[in-house]
Design brief:
Layout: H1 2-19, E1 33-39, E2 42-55, E3 58-66, H2 73-80, E4 87-95, H3 96-99, E5 103-109, H4 114-120
Antiparallel strand pairs: 1-2, 1-5, 2-3, 3-4
Length: about 120
Amino acid sequence: MKSTLCLVLSATLTGCATESIEEPEATVATPGAFVAVDTPSSPMSLLRTLDSFKNGDDTILVFTEYNVIPDSWEEAEAMAKLPDLPIRYLETPGSFNTFTQFDHRVVWYRTLTDEERERAQ
């Protein structure tokens, strides 16, 4: 009886501890981040970060670009949550230094699928 009680309390306390840990907010370089980009010369686009790596003083970002044109940040978030978005480019690179000069927002995040992880390698 005593060992059962200890086991239940241990499991309960462990569950509480992990629930209290707050995950860090995703950034444009976080694999799995959905990023909407609004540039003056083209319509808003929706990208998904697959990977990033340092290259001298810059960071190279590797994205999947979706074949959608959101009209707002809110619509970009709603599109990011759809299960099957049409893909324009499976992989497209970008310079972090150049990319961050444009108006952009992380609109949603979920972990990469196995297929997306493989594509990033």
